[in-house]
Amino acid sequence: MDTLPFRVATPVELEQLGPAGLRDKLAGPPQLALPWLGGAAVAGHLDAQMVLGQWFLAGHGDARDPVQAFAWFKHAAHAGHAGAANLAGRCYENGWGTAPDARAAAHWYTLAAERGSDWGMYNLATALVLGRGVVADRRAALRWYQRAAALGHAKSLNILGGFHEDGWEVAQDPARAVAYYRQAAEGGDFRGQFNYARMLALAGREAEAQQWIRRVPQTATGPFIDKMLAFLGDAPQQALQRLYAHASVAAQAATVVQTAQPAPEAAAAAGTQRGIRSRGSPPST
């Protein structure tokens, strides 16, 4: 953290630029923004410290440095930054720049959640469901998912749909489950889009279901798409089997588009990736 592999704007330059000018610089091309981002981080701006950590974690050119990323996240987190605390937890969970430590991950997720981070709430809740680094407690997990969902967190909305569909810590309520899945789908969560499409198809609203299932491959991970196709293809319900055809075509189209584009640089995901839900079981990794 003491030295950065690029020129850093001086305090005088930052003062002359001003807050509005700094925002404009940081919104520009990454290579041009780096001196200003680094200068702001060194000067103690917590948001800049978190973003700089993400820059090192994602890796641009030869600059990927998970150890530096972890150090910046911890620095900002110790100063009270909620998002950085969540990312410190992600580093501990995944072994980015430090040894994997589930208990430490849960500790930082707790701090992030208590400071108001929706991703921290989601990640803490998931740790509580899975008993990862903490004693498993689905009731406590439900409360944190609810708090994140109240902030509009799409992945948490999808998980709440699962709680209400399967009756985890709440009475089974298919109508409420559908409402949560719809909110998650509209919020852009591909798992929510899949679950909403699935419920629509089973309710006989197949035209709407087909529209939603076509959206899933646009943002879903490859492993999720494989699981989705296997689930739909093996489903005993004819409505889900018919949905399979539309999902398969959309998946093939998405693969063609992705192949034609340059591979994107790795990004530091704020949250965790969960697989297709199975009834009566927690979200799988």
Automatic annotation (TrEMBL):
Region (Disordered): 265-285
A UniProt-annotated Pfam family: Sel1
Domain of life, source organism: Bacteria
Gene3D superfamilies recorded: Tetratricopeptide repeat domain
PANTHER family associated with the record: ERAD-ASSOCIATED E3 UBIQUITIN-PROTEIN LIGASE COMPONENT HRD3, SEL-1-LIKE PROTEIN
Descriptive protein name: Sel1 domain-containing protein repeat-containing protein
Naturally occurring in which organism (per UniProt): Cupriavidus taiwanensis
Taxonomic path: Bacteria, Pseudomonadati, Pseudomonadota, Betaproteobacteria, Burkholderiales
